[in-house]
């Protein structure tokens, strides 16, 4: 989960989906991404995010959406990009009866200890590549963890 669901979280979603497909465990995972805000609902990911993913042989048909109460009841994990997202998600989860999701920073799993995945929106292609690399490291480590 990220603020607008057009940069970081769609990259993380696409990376995780490719990893579970490559490992042939996609039937064990339901993968999606969402925003805490409603700013970009229905929009495709940022062109720079799509370009970065394509450069790594990954395609996505993601459309931005806002997180719902049902997400907190459906998903086992809701992983987010920064402390602001974490605060917003924890606040929203407190309003949901039967919240089963563990809410945490995706960066918690980074072997390089980069806890925050910075928003590349106002940055360059290099910043999107940094996000991609962080997402790969974090998603691999998350997937290796026993669930």
Automatic annotation (TrEMBL):
SMART domains, alphabetized: LMWPc
GO molecular function: acid phosphatase activity; non-membrane spanning protein tyrosine phosphatase activity
Pfam families in alphabetical order: LMWPc
E.C. no: 3.1.3.2, 3.1.3.48
Keywords attached to this entry: Cytoplasm, Hydrolase, Protein phosphatase
Organism domain of life: Eukaryota
Phosphotyrosine protein phosphatase I domain sequence ranges: 1-145
Keyword Zinc-finger appears in the UniProt entry: no
Listed name of the protein: Low molecular weight phosphotyrosine protein phosphatase
Species this protein is from: Crypturellus soui
């Amino acid at each position: 989960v990220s603020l607008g669901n057009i940069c970081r979280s769609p990259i993380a979603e696409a990376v995780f989906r490719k990893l579970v497909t490559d490992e042939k465990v996609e039937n064990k995972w339901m993968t999606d991404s969402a925003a805490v805000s409603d700013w970009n609902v229905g929009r495709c990911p940022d062109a720079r995010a799509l370009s970065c993913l394509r450069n790594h042989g990954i395609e996505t048909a993601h459309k931005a959406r806002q997180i719902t109460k049902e997400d907190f009841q459906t998903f086992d994990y809701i992983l987010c990009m920064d402390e602001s997202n974490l605060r917003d998600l924890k606040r929203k989860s407190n309003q949901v009866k039967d919240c089963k999701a563990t809410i945490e920073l995706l960066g918690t799993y980074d072997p390089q200890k980069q806890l925050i995945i910075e928003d590349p929106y106002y940055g360059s292609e290099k910043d999107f590549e940094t996000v991609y690399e962080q997402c790969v490291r974090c998603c691999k480590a998350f997937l290796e963890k026993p669930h």
